[in-house]
Protein: Uroporphyrinogen-III C-methyltransferase
Amino acid sequence: MDHFPIFLATRGQRIVLSGGGEAALAKLRLLLKTSARLIVFAPTPDPQIESWAAEGRLTLHRRPMDAGDALCAKLFYAADEDAQEDARTAAIAKACGALVNVVDNLHDSQFITPAIVDRDPVTIAIGTEGAAPVLARAIKADLEERLPTTLGALARIGKGFRKLADALPMGRPRRDFWRDYYFTSGPRAIAEGPEAVRPALDTLLNDHLSRSARPGHIAFVGGGPGDPELLTLKARRALDEADVVIYDRLISPEILELARREALMIDVGKEGFGPSVTQDSINALLVEHAQSGAQVVRLKSGDATVFGRLDEEIDAVDAHGITWHIVPGITAASAAVAGIGQSLTKRDRNTSVRFLTGHDMKGFADHDWAALARPNEVAAIYMGKKSARFVQGRLLMHGAERNTPVTVIENASRPDQRVLSTTLSALPQDLADAQMTGPALTFYGLAPRAAAQAATQTPLEEMA
Ligand code: SAH
Structure:
């Protein structure tokens, strides 16, 4: 770090600038946000600078700078748009003891002005030491978009409320209160006018005070296969009342929308930015939030009790004496089988159905494969895309029919649901060709109803 960022107190301080063109204007626009005394030297000033002078916002001298003109100045900007003149004025300012910035000349500058995101009194300065102005602009644009424009006003009002908010226990409860204020209730209240903010703060504080008095609790909620209409009423209610929602990758955005607006949403299934959050950190998050008094919804796809690592999380919260309950959800197999118009069990076909995970297939014992390979068996295979070839190999080895129907349902219950109807022998190739990227459930021993009917009807039609 060659440049160390600081925030300079400007009230009553002199800041001198030499120049009257575009470069001067750009810097002055920033400097006018401060409470410094601005002095500008410009033989031919831009009319805008003249009107600022007329309004008393700066002092304008319509002449080139002379020795001693920057005496007592803290900062000096050479914005002459002329290298020679910049060097001359910078030398004068340096002799006066001011810190010097030569506009667009990093080498001769003693300080540089960062890109600024202004939500006064919240100010964010971004610098790249001249290495990547494009990057600084991109970061600024990103932050401008992310931070409500009312943040500054909210910060000023919030400052006056700090003492009252100290009634909340330190740590999480207080942090949650302020986060709620700055990002949810504050922006909403100020949209109705600044006078609405203070009452909103009072309500919010009462809400948080009563919340911090009640013990935390965790609801392990099955979020279903993706279609929000497949949520149970209990799941909806839990989402409605949640302080914190900790959710997995497969939870659809439409379902997240249903959570209480003030709820803290924590994504523990991130992909793309490196590995997803570890089970240990998820357990720790659950404990931390519940202990701070939050009503936590641990939202898992499908049914929380099916391949959801639920017991590990229950053990972790039990160890801390935290109360919990389970809200059942519609598991992917139920949604997928509905999508192909079939039953999971059927008299005279299969009276049992296995739920398998493609992940643990290696631990599947030989007698399990042998049982599954018998005619009319049905299995719902979760997370089975990668293991398709392995499963096929084992089943064939144990005598399964090559043309046993296999159906893969991708994105079951969602608008982009796709159904691949194939056979055990063609499964790996057909699956590779289909290039499925969404979650997919594989039914071994089941064909979509229409395909199944066509298969049994064909001989009849041929006879006719
Ligand atoms: N608890 C979940 C399963 C979690 S394991 C449940 O009960 O459904 C994740 C696997 O579930 C995925 O790899 C996929 O096989 C299956 N799955 C989840 N949602 C699905 C969907 N909408 N369509 C098809 N399969 C899905």
Observations:
- The chain has four domains: 14-113, 151-209, 217-330, 333-463.
- The pocket of S-adenosyl-L-homocysteine is lined by residues 225-226, 250, 300-303, 306-308, 331-332, 336, 382-383, 409, 411-414, 439-441 (CB under 6 Å).
- The longest strand covers residues 73-78.
- The radius of gyration is 33 Å.
